[in-house]
Amino acid sequence: MSADIIDGKAFAEGVRERVAIAVAILKEKHEFTPGLAVVLVGDDPASQVYVRSKGKQTIEAGMASFEHKLPAETPEADLLALVEKLNADDRVHGILVQMPLPKHMNEAKVVNTILPEKDVDGLSAISAGRLVLGEEGLVPCTPTGVLMLAKDVRGDLSGLNALVIGRSILVGKPVAQLLLAENCTVTMAHSRTKDLAAHCRQADILVAAVGRPRMIKGDWIKLGATVLDVGINRIDAPERGEGKTRLVGDVDFDEALEVAGAITPVPKGIGPMTIACLLHNTIVAACRQKDVSIPTELDK
Ligand code: NDP
After folding, report:
1. CA 1, CA 222: separation in Å to the nearest integer?
2. Can you list the domains of the chain with their CATH numbers?
3. Which of 172, 175, 203, 229 counts the highest number of beta carbons within 10 A?
4. Alpha-carbon gap, residue 78 to 82, rounded angstroms
C-alpha cells in the first residue's frame, strides 16, 4: 500500500483563487476592498521572507496590503501605538504582527492590543477563548489549514480518533479544539507523554506539530491513517552536495507512505496553507466588520 500524497500547495492555490473571487465580489457588490496590515519588527531573515510572501499573495488576491517595517530597537510603546492606529483604520480589516518580536517586547501584550475583530492570526487571548467556547471568532491560520486538509481527505470527521502531538498555542492547542469541534475523539501528546507510539497507533488522524525531524516512525502509524505533518525541520543533506540542507517533517515520510492512507509532504504540505488561510481569515474578518454576508464562493 502506498499512501495518497496530499497536495497542500495545490489546495492552497485553490483557497487563494476562491479568496480572489470573493474579493472581486466584495468590490463589485459592496464597494470595498479587504485590507491586511502586516507589521514586521527587526530584520530576522525568515520573518522577512514570510512577510514578503504575505504581501505578494495579498496583492495577487486583489486585496489591499499595508506593510509596516520597524527597526529592532523600536520601543514597545511605538509598536502598540501603531497597532492602535491600524485598529482605528477602516481600510484595514486584518492585522498581523510577525513573531518573534525582539526580546524587549511583550508578545502577548502586543497581540492582545489587536482588536479581536481584526486578529486574523487568531492568537489573542480573546480569539483563543472564543475558539474554546465555540463562539464566532478568528482561528489561527496553520490549524485552519490542517482542518481543511483533514476534511478534504476524510469528509465527516465525526467519531474519528485524532492524536495531536504538540501543545503550542500556535498549532497544537487550536488544532485539537478544531478537531474536537468536528466531533473527533481527541488526544493531545507532548514531551511528557508516555508511549507515544501506542497513542499514534490508535489515531485515524495524526497531526504532528513538534519540530523534531522524522520522529514519528512508520510502524507507529495506524493502517490507513490520515497524517498531517506540520513540522518543518532543516537537516543536512550531503547527498545534495557539501553544506546543503533540506526540509523534512516530524514524520518519517518514506516509512509512513507504506502505512498511512494519506499524508502531507514537507515541504508543499501544510506550509502553503498558512498564508492561504490568512487571506481567507481576512475576508471573513472584513465581511463581519462591514456587516455583509461572506460570499459563498469563498468556501465552495
Ligand atoms: P513549539 O516548539 O512551540 O511546540 C512543540 C511541541 O512539541 C511542544 O508542545 C512540545 O511539548 C512537543 N514536543 C517536543 N518534543 C516532543 C517529544 N519528544 N514527543 C512529543 N512531543 C514533543 O512548536 P510549534 O507548535 O510552534 O511548531 C511545531 C512545528 O511546526 C515546528 O517544526 C514548526 O516549524 C512547525 N510550524 C509550521 C508552520 C507551517 O507549516 N506554516 C507554522 C507553525 C509551526 P511540551 O509542551 O511538553 O514542551
Report:
1. 13
2. 30-115 (3.40.50.10860), 141-271 (3.40.50.720)
3. 175
4. 6
Nearest-CA residue for ligand 1 atom 24 is 168
- Cα(209) to ligand 1 centroid in Å equals 4
Residue 272 CA from chain centroid, whole number: 9
Distances (CA, A) of 194 to 200, 210, 228: 11, 15, 21
Q: What is the mean pLDDT of the chain?
A: 97
Report pTM: 0.97
State the pLDDT confidence band at 300, using cuts at 50, 70 and 90: confident
Q: Using pLDDT thresholds of 50, 70 and 90, give the confidence band for residue 174.
A: very high
Q: How far is residue 225's CA from residue 241's CA, in Å, rounded to a whole number?
A: 35
Instruction: Give the CA-trace dihedral at 250, 252, 256, 261, to 10 degrees.
Output: 30
- What CA–CA distance (Å, rounded) separates 141 from 67? 19
Give the residues surrounding ligand 1 with Cβ less than 6 Å away: 142, 165-168, 170-172, 189-193, 196, 209-212, 230-233, 270-271, 274
Residue with cell 545534495: 240
Q: Are 162 and 205 in contact (CB under 8 A)?
A: yes
The answer to whether residues 192 and 217 touch, using CB atoms and an 8 Å cutoff, is: no
Residue ranges with strand state E in 139-213: 161-165, 185-189, 205-208
